[in-house]
Structure formats: C-alpha cells, structure tokens
Amino acid sequence: MARLLLLLTRTSYRAKAFLAAARRLSVDVTVGSNHQQVLADRAAGGAIGLDVAPVDRAVESIVRYASDYPLDGIVAAEDDFTPVAASASEALGLTHHPPDAVGFARNKAMMRERLAASGFPTPWYRIVPLQSDPDDTASTARFPCVLKPLSLSASRGVIRANTPEEFVRAWKRIRRILEDDNATHRRRPALTEILIEDYLPGQEVALEGIVTAGQLQTLAILDKPDAMEGPFFEETMLVTPSRFSKAVQDTIASQVGQCAAILGLDNGPIHAELRVDGDHASLLEIAPRSIGGRCSAILRFDRAATLEELIVRHALDLPLQGFRREPGASGVMMLPIPRAGILRDVSGMDAALEVSGIEGLEITIPLGQTVVPLPEGNRYLGFMFARADSPDRVETALRLAYARLDVKVESS
Fold first, then answer.
1. What does the DSSP 8-state code read for residue 368?
2. What CA–CA distances, in Å, run from 304 to 150, 169, 190, 324?
C-alpha cells in the first residue's frame, strides 16, 4: 500500500477531504502537524509532529521518518506547509514543485521580480522596507495603487490607496498587522517589506489546476461576481464554470501556464488569481497549492473524484487523464465577518437552506469567539454552497440565501 504524508496545521479546513480521498485510493496516510491534538488518534507510524519553520528541521524529521516508513508522496493541505512539502519531496526524490519555485510564488515581491526579469507583462511595482517613511514613499507612488504584505494569504493586509493620504493610512495599518504577525510567529522569518503595485481594473477570476512535468491541466476557472475594487479585497463568492468567453478563458489559462513556467512551478497544484479587463488578463498572484478553505467542495470531477483526490493522485504519480469537471454549475460564498467583536448568534440558517440550489451551510467559527474582519482578520464566518444548471442560478441562490442570514456580533 502506498503511503502519503499529509501536512496540515491546527486550523486546517481540509483534513477530512484529503483523508477521504486517500481512503478512496486505498492509500495509507501519515499526518504531519504542528498541533498535538490533530495527531492524538493516529496509530504508531501514522503521525509525525512537525512545525512549519524552520524548514530544514522539519525536513530532517521527515527524512528520518521515511527511513522507517517509506513515503510515496507528500501533500501540504494548505499554504503554511508548502515549503516543507517541497523541500522534503526533493530530499526524498518525490513528485513536487521545486523548493525555489515555491519560494518565488509565495513571496509577492520575488514573483513580480522574476516575471519582470523574464519580460512578462507586469504592472508597475515597488518593494519598500516596512520601516520606510510612509509620507516619502507615498510621494513616489502611482495612484491608484495597492499595498500588499509579501506573504500573507486570503487578501489579509491588502489595501487600495487612491491618494497620498490614503496611502499613509494604509501603510500604518499594514505595519501594525505585520508587527502583530511577526510577534505571533517568532520562528518564521519576519515580514519586513511591503509591495506597492498598480491597481488593476477588471473582474477577478481564479484558476485551479495541476502542473505535470511542466504542462498545466486547467481543472476549473472560477468567476468572482462581486466587484473587488477596494479599499479591501475580501473574497465572498466563487462560481464555476466561468461566464467569460472561451477566448478569454484560453487567455487566462495561457497566462497562468506562462507564469508557472517562468517561476519553475512544474509539478504540483496551482491556484492563481487574475484580473480580466475586456479581453486582457493580468496575473495578480499564483500559489503552489490548491484553493483554500472549504471552497474545494464545489469542485467535483468524473467518477465522483474530488479536487483532493486529484492532488493525491498527482503526488503518487497516478494518471490524471480523463478527469473533467462534472456538468452543471456550482459556487461557494465565503461568509464575511460584518464587524469586529464577539460572535453571539447566526440565525436564519434553516431559511437559507430552503433556497433552491443551496446544498450546504457551515459556520466555522464557534459562538462566543472573537471575530475580526479584513484586512486584519484571516478567517471567514463560514461557507455556503450551491449547485444548479447555470452559473447565473448559482449566484442568485447564494445571494438569496445569504440575505436570509442574520449575524449578530457584539462589540468587545
């Protein structure tokens, strides 16, 4: 029986989906985690305690483990563990994106630098030390622009500025976010720079794919129907199949394939974010992992395969030919946090589930916990799923169902 090492953090949404995929494929799973509770019920040889940093130490632990329990593949369930998965796979000769390529993709500044150096069309950008004077920096910026931390995910700390005054306020807010993050994650390299780049107009889309031996297989293109114009960029809805023309979708896939090749992402999952303005597509970010949260639940493929199953198959060098997204349309709404405070109640859930097309609703933050919206926050209230015969009907169902929810957040 093949053995897979599944790396996941304490807050992972996707452990169950990956474990279910492994069972379908009759694969033995070892869980690697930075949290003891996740490992508590694993049998001997079925778990290994790891942290996301330092990477070298985690890789040494995995290599030692593999000497007793040989591994056939390594999968990171979410972004934090992707550097460990890449380096450990390289050390053991397993299929994965190269570690350098993973580093380039996870650092927004390095990504822009690599793309620009290759001659790939890239927006104006600057990389500025966090301790620079924001007033001086604003005087040299182009407006409108977007300020971004280099390696936070889920749009955390990403802020649009239209004027020098907004720029300075955004800079100070991001600096507080990064100082808090650096204090919380002392073992990781401190985040000490901010990326400033042109604001790109247009509608956001996402591409989900897997690269095999340098060839991108596009699994889905997902529209983001809500306008994402700032000042913050909270994702709320993803709908597939895309409603863009085939020509535009081909352009999206071509852009992602070219960017992956430039960065060296040649063997593993890909999640890319782009802006489409008319017939033109521009890359925002590309990640060496699959889509986050519970969003993968809307992607189903032939033979009842899930996205997680395709990722496991790829890691184990099993064929992916013939897997196409199932007919029909599907979508997910990442339920936004309306304001900071204590989550006291979410009512109207039964009414939301009665909307035609709604398949499920999960509130992932327990009542009584503190909730924080973007740009400081890094969690959603939950996820709502819909399925119908067209993208329009999926979007309508999600909007109608969300309107029936009443979220009560008490000021803390």
1. T
2. 37, 49, 42, 10
Instruction: Say if residue 54 is preceded by a cis peptide, omega within 30 of 0.
Output: yes
DSSP state of 199: P
pLDDT digits (tens, 9 = 90+) for 237-260: 999 999 999 999 999 999 999 999
Domain-embedded: residue 9: yes
* Helix, strand, coil percentages for the chain (3-state, nearest 5): 35, 30, 40
Instruction: Answer whether 364's CB lies under 8 Å from 384's CB.
Output: no
- Could you tell me the pTM of the whole model? 0.94
Cβ-proximal residues to 309 (8 Å cutoff; 6+ apart), any chain: 21, 24, 25, 301
Q: How far apart are CA 97 and CA 83, in angstroms?
A: 10
Residue ranges making up the domain that contains 44: 3-96
Take residue 54 and report the two structure tokens written for it: 């330092």
| CATH number of the domain within which 336 lies | 3.30.470.20
- How many domains are contained in the chain? 3
- Average the pLDDT over each of 24-28, 35-39, 380-384, 406-410 and give the range with the smallest value: 35-39
37 and 92 in a single domain? The answer is yes
What's the rounded Cα separation, in Å, for the pair 196 and 157? Answer: 12
Question: What is the radius of gyration, based on Cα positions, of the chain?
Answer: 21
